[in-house]
Amino acid sequence: MLTWQRCQTQLSGFLKKTGFISGISIAFYGLGSFVFKYIDAAFLGNDIVHNLPRALMGWGALVTILILMGSLFLRDAPEAQVTKVSKQHQYTTAEMLRKPQAYLLFIALFTICLSVYLTGIATNLGTNLAGLSIERAATVVALIAISNTVGRFVIGTLSDRFGRKPMLMLTYSATLIAVLVLTFSSHIAVPMFYAMMMMVGFFFGGTITVFPSLVGDYFGLQNHSQNYAMIYQGFGFGSLAGALVLSLAGGNLAVVFYTYIVLLIVSLIIWLTIKTPKYVESK
């Protein structure tokens, strides 16, 4: 059993390093997609149609085992610690949704998640922009996955040291530069193409690492799961937005890039102007 003093000390340390802790947990989320690509390939073999049922069963069994093993190490912190360690108002979801900051954070998260679509078409971009063969262009997917994982560790840790907003200003600015280069280059050198795509992956991973901590900074930790679940909808909608915009634009990929550029500029304005919400007790 942990003593109250030890629990309080551990929670205090966690509150000072939430970016680092988020970086660890979310990095393995990205690393898993990279590792399981090879595991799935081993299950599928050369005869994908014939081996698909076996691959799905094997993948499901392996994931179940890993989840059950991981669950054995999970522990909930005593609920009372949050209010004693932090004097910040602990917003309920209903209270959070009455604050404009909630919607601004949603827009910003929605924006950066357009990177999911951008990295998803990395192979096609490599063949069209850099003149790569399909085989060589496919290697950029692995490079994006690696840079994405590293970005989660690096940006998450740096956000504890330099603050959430400065790091988000950096991630959105760097992403804007990468998207501008990819948008307005009819032909791009191979090293530059790799660098821009890895930049997108690196700063996308870093951004979604900082967001959970930022939501906790703004709205408290007591109801963090419910509150972040609402903001996190921006991830899902943003991931789908690229394909939707492409469809509405009649297959014109340039429209997707222009849309992303505009949203990145809007998000940078958000980071320049957004402030921690002030709680006013209703009478």
Describe the structure.
The protein is an all-alpha fold and 283 residues long. It has helices at residues 4-16, 18-44, 48-71, 80-85, 93-96, 100-112, 114-120, 122-129, 134-162, 164-183, 190-219, 224-231, 233-248, 253-273. It has a domain at 90-272: MFS general substrate transporter like domains (Growth Hormone, Chain: A). The protein contains 14 helices and no strands. The N and C termini lie far apart (42 Å). The model is unreliable at 1-14 and 80-85 (pLDDT under 50).
Multimerization state: single chain
- For the CA atoms, what is the radius of gyration? 21 Å
Considering the protein shown, what is the CATH homologous superfamily of the domain at 90-272?
MFS general substrate transporter like domains
> Mean of the pLDDT scores?
83
Top-tier CATH class of the domain at 90-272: Mainly Alpha
Question: Can you count the helices?
Answer: 14
CATH fold node name of the domain at 90-272 = Growth Hormone, Chain: A
By CATH, the architecture of the domain at 90-272 is named Up-down Bundle
- Specify the overall morphology: globular
* Largest sheet properties: none
